[in-house]
Amino acid sequence: SGTQSGSCCYVPPSQADGGTGGTPTAVSAGGITVKDGSNTVATMSPNGTTYTAVTNPPTSSLTWNAGDGLAVTAAGDTVHSFSGTVNAVALFAGVSPALSFLTPTAIPRSSDFTITWTAGTGGVSVLISALKNLTENDGVITCTSSSDTGTMTVPHDLLGNLSANDTGTLTLTRTISADASPDNADVTLRSVTSTGGSVTFQ
Q: Is it the case that residue 20 has pLDDT exceeding 70?
């Protein structure tokens, strides 16, 4: 819940802090293999019900190109065997204003803020998180779109909820999803990339 304006929503600190939900129960789907065409880029074997993340480095085979179809198969266990393919998202390019954690981007509170980038494939989101006194949550604004047109505008009526003394971060995320659900579980494959930087508010 929060204050909605177009595709964006402001959630105040009391709600953005959320709460602690129930602890999920880990289950196994057996050995998992990820392939890019005929090339195996990663394998994961559960230790009981726990999988260890695979990263590059050190796994040098874990690489692909934007648009590649990444095929994921699981041998099955508590979660029955499944298979599916998700296309790899492209990294963000041409982001304006440029985002940096060294030089903050100034966001006006009295006018709409627009960020642009080179359009791609997938859904996109913009997350602005505001902090008071560097540590205290002062609310978040989230804007989402199911298609990537290369632009997102954050309305000033939501930005006005933030303080000129706030600092924060802006994160731009692109996601492609694909369903790979077996007969006894919901499984969604996601290819995600993000970029971000520090922000101030004027």
A: no
